[in-house]
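Need Foldase protein PrsA's 3D structure for a figure. Predict it.
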Amino acid sequence: MLHNKQRSLTGKRGLSAMLVLLLSLAVVMSACGKKTVDVTKAPASDQGTVVAEYKDGKVTDKEFDRYISFFSIVNSSAEAYLAVEGVKEQFLREYIGYKILYSRADDKAKEAAADDVETFVKQFEDAAKSDTDMKAKMDKSGLTNDDAEWFYRMIITVMDHSEQSVKDEEIKAVYDKTPTDFNNVTLRHILIGFTDPSTGEEKMKKEDALKKAKEVKAELEKGGDWTELAKKYSDDEGSKDNGGLYEDQEPRVWVEAFKNAANTQEVGKIGDPVETEYGYHVIKVEKRETRTWEQVPDATKDELRQSISTNNLNTFMSDELPDLITKIDLPKEDTTDTTGGSTDTNKDSGQADTGTDTGTDTGTDTGTSTDTNAEKKEESSTK
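Structure prediction for Foldase protein PrsA:
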């Protein structure tokens, strides 16, 4: 419950829940006898009716249907998301954004994606042979294995190209802004929660939680056992069974008040209860080491690169993309309230939210939003 962000950055890239599921199909194994797929031409882009136009390109209904099918296969909740009014148009806009960025990607990014694509294709093909529901969805939309490969290649290439474009100086600038966020800290804590992390409802009045936290602190100062007391009192499921221990952590992952305590509280001393949105924390910092930029782990630097890349993709989706889209003309959605109609919207409508994550997290919410912030709130257990 301590974390301020959900770091479900699985693998080498920061991805939305949808892409994480998508990538989970690609287990490590080699593919053989693969035929060549046209990497420049989108599936079914020369079939059907044009539903969107943008600078130097267009999207047809057949093409978009296959893209939707691709996502509904890798994440069953995508269909429900896309049924929400306005979401399908947003999804289309983001798809256009990916196509534009894919066309801008250099050979280096495309080569970097080759191994991922090859692995994914083998797994997708195997799944299509054994999963009758998946095969039915593919048949309904016309989606082929080659189509799935093209969509996957597009997404992975865009992410690789975006990450490769992040300069080392940009990454170090994050460290320079708040170097204490990268300290190496070991601490113990016991959380006395006053809200239910799953519902946000009050489970204890603040004054009662503070009183209990002070009582727990007093017990610890008298020599109470952290393991025993954490198990008895702590509401942090992530640490209550190991004496409240968080070992060799970077404070940047924690919510602000907890992070500040980790960086400033006297080492070896049990501090006064610290209030966060989750409750009161009784904290003992056992170790705190400062780190130079050179001492920051490569894994952390990679994560920062991914984060900057995601922000850059979001900026493209929200700031540049709307000016590149000249027409959206989706058919009227079939709803009980027939007010809607085809949206011949222009770049101005719906620009929105495309982006937070858009490019990389292609989707947690609408099923498309890239990282979509995905980001972002971590579940309870490290509040």
